[in-house]
Each structure stands twice: as C-alpha cells, then as structure tokens.
Sequence to fold (275 residues):
Amino acid sequence: MGIDEVLRALAEDRAREDVTTRLLGDVARQPVAGRFLAEERCVVAGLPVAAIVFRELEPEASLEPCVAEGAWADAGALVATAQGRAATLLAGERTALNFLQHLSAIATLTRRAVEAVAGTGAVITDTRKTTPGLRELEKYAVRVGGGVNHRASLADAILFKDNHWALLGGASLKDALTRAPNGVEVIVEVETPGQLEQALAAGVRRILVDNQPPELIAEWVKRAGPGVAIEASGGITLDTVRAYADAGAKYVSMGVLTHSAKAVGIRLETLGLQS
Fold:
C-alpha cells in the first residue's frame, strides 16, 4: 500500500532532479539524520508511507518510528527519525511531510469522532468524498483513527440514493433489488416515510438517512426495528455526531473526515552530517 501514490508524488515533485541540493556538491552525498516533530497534538498516521518515500529515493535510507502508528503524539513529540544521504532527505522531505500531515489529520479527526460517540455503539464511517488518487490511503487513515470504511468504489456495495429513486419511474424498489448480485451489500437512502416503507418491505437491512435531524433519525430507528441498521449522514460534524449516535444511528458517515481534514503540523529537522 502506498507505493503507487508515492511514485506519483515523487514524479510530480521531480524529486530526483533537485537543482537546489545539487549546489551542495559532494556534501549532498554524505549521510545525514533527521527527525520528524509534531507541532500539535495529533494521531499519527502515514509513517509507513513516509518510509517508502525515502526508500524509493535511496534503498539504504530508513525511517524509524518513535511513536506507534495510530497513537496520539503531543506537541513537541519526536514522531520518527530518518537516515540517508543529504540529497535523499532534502528531496523527499516535502513529499514525506505531505503524506504524514494529511493522513495524520484524517486519523486525528476520525479519532475525535470515535471518542465523541464512545459508549453509544455507533460506528463512524467515511465516504467516497476523497482526494482523487488518494482514496486507498485516506481510507487507511480513517481505519488508523478507529473508523470503519464505507464502500471504496461503486462496485463494492449497492447504495440506492435519491437520484436512483428519481429514475426508478413506476417500478418498485423491491423489483429493482431483484437485480442485485448475490453477496453484495444493499444500502438504500430514504427521504420520506413512503420510501422508508418501501425499503422495509423490500427487506433492506441497512437504510441511509441523509440531511435529517437526530429527532427524525430516532423516529425512523424505532419504526425500522432492531433488525435494521440506520445510517445517518449529511453534514455531520464533531459538534453534532453525538446527537446522531444517541438517536440510535448504527452508522454515522462523515465526509468531513477526508474532504475537510486540516493538515496537522509536523516538521522535519535535519541534524547535520553524520560521521
């Protein structure tokens, strides 16, 4: 995991053509050490990916974690150390930090959401609102943070949404679902009591309720009964997630985990030439 994304990122940065580091001459080939430091409290994610960055530039380079992947790191904490040629650390610095800062941001936001619903039995899930080309890594960061992945692609599960309802015409949901491949999970979004009744009549066991208040979630949880999992989604934040969990939602999907996670502060300091 992560190799393809790292190779694309290094190519984008033209990391093997670092014209600035070439100004150092022979010094660029000398061994140096560096340390990654957290500038704020965060859940660390992406250390294996950062290690790939340096190894792709120099097979003998290494990155040694000082905190476990998925652990909290306080501001000022030593996150990892790196060893390699000066050219390697300088060329890979930005790419490694980009991955670490972004994935740690997702893991941190996810962990806070998981902690916010602790004790309710609700599960925090992500969505497909991911950065193009980085979905696998971003969903990995959600798992590191304690969340659960929703479908990773359109082929992974059936999610019958509002636009599908609009195109259903005179057919029934039950008839449409007869075309569902065996073994593929079925999730149906409902917006009205009538759609809820159709979904229940069709035997759907996971129902998504989008952009509705917790009070309606609680009402429809009761109507659906214990054999049906209700998923709440739509603009849910850390401030509101507990209310949806308390309302009885089994799943709370949060697009904000991946599309709005603000990069956390992590920096790399080089320690000079090594003897």
Q: What stands out?
A: The longest helix spans residues 86-116.
